[in-house]
Amino acid sequence: MKPLVKKVELNKIPKWIKTFFHPKTLREILVLTKLLRQNKEHFLLACLLGILHHQRPGFLSYPASHLVPYLRTCKFPREKFPELYEYRTVAPRLQKKVQRVYRRFPDITPGIPRECKLKDTTNLNLPKESIDVVITSPPYMNALDYARDNRLRLWFLGVTEYRRYDKKAPNNCQKFLNLMEQCLGNIQYGLRSGGRCILVIGEVNRTRKSINTAQLIIDLALNKIGGFKCEEIIEDTIPDIRRARKNGACTKREWIVVFRKGKKQNGKAKSA
Length: 272
Prior knowledge:
Layout: H1 2-7, H2 15-18, H3 23-38, H4 42-50, H5 90-103, E1 131-136, H6 146-149, H7 151-156, H8 163-166, H9 173-190, E2 191-202, E3 204-206, E4 209-211, H10 213-225, E5 228-237, E6 245-246, E7 249-250, E8 253-261, E9 263-265, E10 268-270
Helix pairs in contact: 3-4, 4-5, 9-10
InterPro entries: DNA_methylase_N4/N6, MeTrfase_CN4_CS, SAM-dependent_MTases_sf
Family: Belongs to the N(4)/N(6)-methyltransferase family. N(4) subfamily.
Protein name: site-specific DNA-methyltransferase (cytosine-N(4)-specific)
């Protein structure tokens, strides 16, 4: 890889990308990203993107936030923390990342067939009553800019105009409910009787106004879509340090909502 690294020219790389990395580190990332994408090494590529930015030694960038990618030069000025602005070799850090992932490797039963799909859930055509459980987390309404928050990773994946992805996210209650109605309708159709749909849903707070998105979805599932029974609601308060914000909005609480599919009776679920 060293001969390829020496040939990399940084003059065509956007300035905002170059501000995050030591030049030698950036050259290594560029070469390795290209090789992994060409050879469809998705696991290694995901591990590499997972260590792109943070201030910890195991990451590749200059001191930066681990959520939204921005430099933390005020908290870690170069003159006081010169070691944080030195060249960081990519290979050993990637190797340690892979080792960390394998320490938490799931216990997978080999006899169960698996299939991965990249698909819009509003157009997901599930066979009728073919699955037992759905576990998912819908987009947090107007509280996060998913593409902006991952713009550094997206750039290395070849996405230069990340803003077009954030425009697809629902930014008000009605758009959010329209999206969820389509998704839950597809899920309800595909679930077997007695099957569960488990949703992780974030509350949205804008200034002094709180939007209980969990209750919106519960009302939608029970009263409009039908065929669901709400079995359990688990509340989780998010510490302030972990809260992501967008234009003054933030998520202070999350709910885990467990729906059980019953038989429809006048639009409502009848226990099976």
